[in-house]
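Render this sequence as a predicted structure.
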Amino acid sequence: MARFIDTVRNAFKIEELKQRLIFTGLMLLVVRVGSFIAVPGIDVAAIDQANVAGDANTLFGFFNQFVGGAYSNASIFSLGIMPYISASIIIQLMTAVVPFFQKLQQEGEQGRVQINTITRYITVALAFAQGIAIAISIQNIDAGGGVPVVPISLQGPLFILTAAFIMTAGTIFLMWIGEQITERGIGNGVSLIIFIGIVARLPIAIQHEFALASTSPGRVVIEIVIVAMLLAIIAAVVLFTQAMRKIPVQYAKRQVGNKSYSTPTQYLPISLVTANVMPIIFAQTLMFLPQLLGQAFAGTSLGDYINTHFQHQGMIYSVVLAVMIIFFTFFYTAIVFSPKDVAERLRKNGGYIPGIRPGKPTEEYIDNILTKITVPGSLFLALIAILPAFVLGLGVSGEFSAFFGGTSLLIIVGVALDTLKQIESYLLMRHYDGFMKSGKLRGRQASGQIPG
């Protein structure tokens, strides 16, 4: 604990890092405040009584976790940053299969600017479409006793369009905040917005769990075991996300005058979970479709069958989700990591893997290793994704069970590690500069240039 306090104190001693930390904190505070500002026309008292998002294990409850409860508050940030994430995923997939986007990606900075512009346009379209859907769902919510969340006098197309415009503007504003944090703050802005939204639900989840613990004296022992399980799962996630397979790489000797110098052995790192959280996001997005169909055909035989067998975190749901995650892990890894491109770059730079011929043999060797480490990586992601369902079966509250795995846990761990690494890099740079200055000072003292 003392070391942690010293690290925080050192961080605020570095002026640039202090300003970045303060700026990031203020921007995230704006995000949290905005999640409680209701869309104009909403009866705030009624929205507090209504269970807008439903249980955490439902479709909208799951979505509500990623926007920090903004959807349940019918706020201006109800959509969160999710439309931008969806647009980025669409562009990333299109970059892998559409020649136009492949060409843009190869054009360097100019191409990246064009891709970002297209991503923003898609974000606006998705946000407006989702805003209309959410505005309609909120308009139809009854707070109980026949009291609507939206007064009857305000209901209609005008409210729906107005709410959709405001929610879209909220998403654009969050997107701008994310860019500002990335540029002027610390960490990845968009990731931190999602991170703070998920973490903001943690106190509520703990409160629900304490309520369960107070139901019986024997429950306290169970809660201790549950907390120990959570800590062990977090440790496992950190271990797997940081695990890498390092392939040794040698480079040709450099000729300087009449002498040749050999470069030290370097390594090509391949992450055990190259696809990161994306396979879970893809799979869960597709798994939303059966639930949407079940709601659309509620009361019919088809709707009853879907609602019975494809319940969120049910057995069939979990099995299908795990299979889809394994598939998407291989699919997405193939998109983001190309053994052919890596082998070609090594050949052009005069690098080679000891014992492996450059070119096609190197490509096959890297591809073979990538496949071998993707297998345990995909199984790990599938297990993490379905863990909340098993924990829920142990009697853990729905809110708290979401933190035992799935997208929530991976995002929390990933963003926390990435942000801490950036902070650590500032600290190491500062310490390195200080060490060099001390070394020069001692050298000048030893030579008698300055008094000891």
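Summary. The two ends are 37 Å apart (CA to CA). Residues 406-446 form the longest helix (41 residues).
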